[in-house]
Amino acid sequence: xxxxxxxxxxxxxxxxxxxxxxxxxxxxxxxxxxxxxxxxxxxxxxxxxxxxxxxxxxxxxxxxxxxxxxxxxxxxxxxxxxxxxxxxxxxxxxxxxxxxxxxxxxxxxxxxxxxxxxx
Length: 119
Fold this sequence. Notes:
By secondary structure, the chain is mainly alpha-helical. It is 46% helix and 10% strand. The chain has a two-stranded antiparallel ribbon. Mean pLDDT is 77; it is low at 1-8.
């Protein structure tokens, strides 16, 4: 069964691309938050990771397919580790009422959580 058949069998329209991009954005955001909490520069992060400064830029740009190993390394050099949590897909884009101001809540469409714990 290919990916599209699997998604269709769930009787719930799910856009796998959106889930992938959301997971990537959450991973990048997690790394950025740890950098900010650790109060280190991106240049210092690159030095600690033993990569070029451009590698850090690509990692946080949104156009780079971040690997789990790279994410783990980035967090580790900041004194953190990554832990993943799986949750059932709640495809709730259409079930969220539109607030009167027009802005949607920050968690609309969120599907997963990445916890970062200090070591």
